[in-house]
Design a protein that fits this description.
The structure is a homodimer. The first copy, chain A, is of the alpha/beta class. Chain A is built from 14 helices and 23 strands. In chain A, helix 1 packs across helix 7. The longest helix of chain A is centred in the N-terminal third of the chain and has 24 residues. In chain A, about 60% of the residues are buried. At the A-B interface, helix 4, strand 5, strand 6, helix 8 and helix 14 of A face helix 4, strand 5, strand 6, helix 8 and helix 14 of B.
């Protein structure tokens, strides 16, 4: 399959030759054909006008139609076969088996949202029927439903070229909600993005959906993304990336004459608290698990455990030895792109240079500068509390162990942390009750709190929460993973005394879709009497 | 009952004599005793530290306990009797019967949230049980629930001294969610605020709640409110007021190192579209209804219909006569405070001075400058589309009628509008189908769309949506009226593989509270098998 190297606007490749750029393979540093154009304000405008034009017809299609469309996207992605996986491998350096798994997750997400649409209760239908005889005033008939926001912008992430990119969770949930999507391709994998964008366009065509519901804009600088976000027709933004990038988008969105919501998933240390009993009981197992979770995907997951907290005690020395052995035996591997790899090496050097921080273990021997090399650093709580640089996320296969003097010291360290995507607690069974205050604190700090596990591996399901207090995300009230992610792209609209003929099926008396609804304050699937 | 004229911090009057100010009665311009102090950064800090300290114990109280507390607040407010109503009347000029009704609404809101807590399903409990044998990877046990954000700030509104002030909808919903509240009293009614704040403190004491869950700060300038919002322990803000005030809070919240959500309800024209068939069928009735809705509460409701759109045609002349007669016969009345009254007179003069705007009717004879005097202005669509000043809300008993040339012209005017709290459509029965495109447009613009009614009168119920696209509110995804308002003060937290002993009742297998929960993707009140 040959790539055209163009933006995709409302189903059509868009000619542009503005400041072309090439993806560079992290495997061998070769520039990959074709060149891709830098998005301009003009192409952004055309894409958003097409999206706005498509909005009414798309958002008013039945839930079944939208579900079929999401499933068709899944099928089209699978139909790309090895072409997609091989291009993604060349562009990201991620192994083919990982990419195969990620494709499965991407396709699975699309199908899960299709199921959610078919069941339909996500729209939170609420009906309060008229009380014409109420005193002192009658009550009108009020019916409320979640409605799509309008066209939204989705930014592809470098670390998940499929599951958090062009047809990833943000796009799947936005299309499910009824929002047209203008995607900004990540410049590290434009070819992968073109292939997936083509799959969405093909599915739209085969399902009779308006072509304007999807466009894909390329670009290497911040400009096309900012143009997208600043466009008056853009109603919301989904982003997964760096703190700096997410904050810039948030600031720009708030500086609009009409601010719009930004759902940015940015940075997290994902602290792991290991209590003494857990160390005694299964220190070796925890050490191995930490190494695996830290080095998985070359440490390029937003849920990588970047901080491990332990208490001084007789069991600590053995645990440190087990950790050192595990990390020394780990393998360096190719990172996503040269920029991330360079930032990792610099960041690791900077952390190591902090007074009071020592290297507990790193991979022995010479490691090519183009590889991410696993490492574990260690420090004490006083140093950690003093040095704000130790509180920043570092993408790559390293973690920082902090030795606390006791439980109270560990609580102080926990209290000093910023918002997190996850926090993890390892305990022995008889430590659970005593850890209640720490658990309460971690629930203030994080969106997901794990017990006796490791934070990498984010299940796509209804109960997942992937989003925590700032700076983990810009809006902790929402998740970017799992079916609840659809709520980001909708707002409630209430119809008062509407003629029955204008009500959508979800709000009609007969409840033709059999939804769970809140009728006069009671949750029920019954029709309105 | 004598007033102490102090801040109320965690149940205790707080001594301060910083730059004292007096409320001024709009009835007779007299300064009312006692003096109230201007809130300082110090008192804000003390209040938020107390709130943070109270948070853990308050948010972990049972839903039944929190419900009883809300009901106790309602009882304490009623126990204030005429003292409260008379002070509110002196401070706001609102008639006693209106204040009696507003007190009923305030008490009713508190009781409604108590009911919501007892039923309990609002917390959106979601459980995905472990699948240890799933291939290629097992699924962990995941349980997700909405959890209180922490201490929040609530700003009292001038136009609802009870229902949107110290114990109004924001406070009731925040306390229901489990958030301590630090309220900023509106400087126009500090005595009313002190009385209601005292009722909350008394209820907290009688229910054994930690005193820090409620504090009340006075102040006449923007400084104490900004200090509240900028305090690191403040997790969210509720506000009802002007566009300028809301935007300033939003900007300040976004400029924090850690931005926090601002729920500001700001400004809305609440356009009323009257189609030709409706005019023919019941023009006189609509004219009377518009006058009543526009002048109710001296036009000081956020849902006042500030814009009326009609189409030229044979029925228009009669309608204009009916409107003119209705407004000419309306009565001037006391506005909330001198500042609002002055802004109304200036605003009305500015609108009247726009070329192409004419006064259709105003109250005849001399009207005291201290009263708000009903008026209706008229213009054509060309003028309206050209003059941005005509798109701004003006608090007070006036409205602007815009004559459109035809349905397409009316649609252009609709498309030009900013976000609204409400939009209203008056149609004859045979016009409903043809109005579908206009209806679709109004659902994009507004949070609530009414048929054949008037936007004032906001029902407090599960299906209400009081919040629309900017600048109506800062966050259209939430409502400030109705039970869904509780969602503003909570965020999801997911527990992964948590020992059953640490799960709250809402997430326990047995479902002891009988909640509707999403278990493995199905909504059910059943226990987890």
């Amino acid at each position: 399959m040959s790539l055209h190297g163009k933006h995709l606007v409302a189903g059509t490749p868009h000619d542009s030759c503005k400041t072309p750029f090439h993806a560079v393979s992290p495997l061998d540093q070769t520039a990959l054909e074709p060149a891709y154009p830098e998005g301009s304000e003009e192409v952004v405008d055309v894409a958003l006008l097409a999206a706005e034009d498509a909005f009414n017809s798309y958002s008013s299609r039945t839930a079944q139609d939208r579900a079929a469309f999401l499933e068709a996207i899944a099928s089209e992605i699978l139909a790309l076969g090895d072409t997609l996986l091989e291009r993604a491998h060349r562009e990201t350096g991620l192994p083919l088996d990982r990419l195969t798994g990620e494709r499965g997750r991407t396709v699975g997400q699309l199908r899960l949202f299709a199921e959610l649409l078919r069941e339909g209760s996500w729209c939170d239908a609420r009906i309060d029927t008229a009380l014409p005889d109420r005193q002192p005033l009658p009550r009108p008939d009020l019916r409320r439903i979640l409605s799509a926001l309008g066209p939204v912008a989705v930014f592809g992430a470098s670390n998940f070229p499929l599951a958090f990119s062009v047809a990833g969770g943000d796009t799947a949930s936005a299309l499910a909600a009824g929002c047209p999507v203008v995607a900004k391709a990540h410049p590290a994998h434009p070819g992968t993005s073109e292939l997936v964008g083509g799959a969405i366009a093909a599915a739209a065509a085969s399902c009779g959906m308006p072509a304007g519901i999807f466009s894909l804009i390329h670009g290497r600088t911040a400009a096309p993304g900012l143009a997208l976000l600043r466009h008056p027709l853009c109603r919301a933004v989904g982003f997964t990336g760096s703190h700096q990038g997410g904050r810039a988008l948030l600031n720009a969105a708030n500086a609009r004459p009409e601010p719009i919501p930004v759902f940015a998933e940015m940075s997290s240390l994902n602290p792991v608290f290991v209590l003494p009993g857990a160390l005694r009981e299964r220190g070796a197992q925890i050490a191995g698990g930490l190494k695996n979770s830290t080095t998985m995907g070359v440490g390029q997951f937003c849920t990588k455990p970047g901080l491990v907290l332990v208490q001084k005690g007789p069991e600590l020395a053995g645990f440190l030895q087990e950790l050192a052995a595990a990390f020394t035996g780990a393998s360096p591997a190719t990172m996503l792109h040269a920029g991330i790899c360079e930032a990792y090496h610099q960041g690791l050097a900077a952390l190591s240079a902090v007074t009071g921080v020592r290297c507990l273990a790193s991979v022995e021997g010479d490691v090519a500068k183009t590889l991410g090399s696993p490492a574990i650093l260690a420090t004490d709580s006083t140093t950690f509390l003093r040095e704000q640089t130790l509180h920043a996320e570092l993408f790559g296969p390293c973690t920082l162990l902090v030795e606390c003097t006791d439980a109270a010291d560990m609580a102080r360290v926990a209290a000093s942390l910023e918002g997190q995507l996850t926090a993890t607690l390892h305990t022995a069974a008889d430590e659970v009750a005593g850890a209640a205050p720490l658990l309460a604190l971690l629930q203030r700090k994080a969106g997901r709190v794990l017990f006796n596990g490791f934070p990498t591996g984010v299940e796509v399901c209804p109960a997942m929460q992937h989003g925590g207090p700032y700076p983990a995300t810009t809006d902790a009230r929402f998740t970017s993973v799992g079916t609840a992610a659809i709520q980001r792209w909708a707002r409630p609209v209430c119809l008062q005394n509407a003629p029955h003929s204008v009500l959508p099926p979800e709000l009609q008396d007969a409840n033709p879709r059999g939804l769970m609804r809140l009728v006069n304050g009671k949750l029920t699937r019954d029709a309105v009497a």
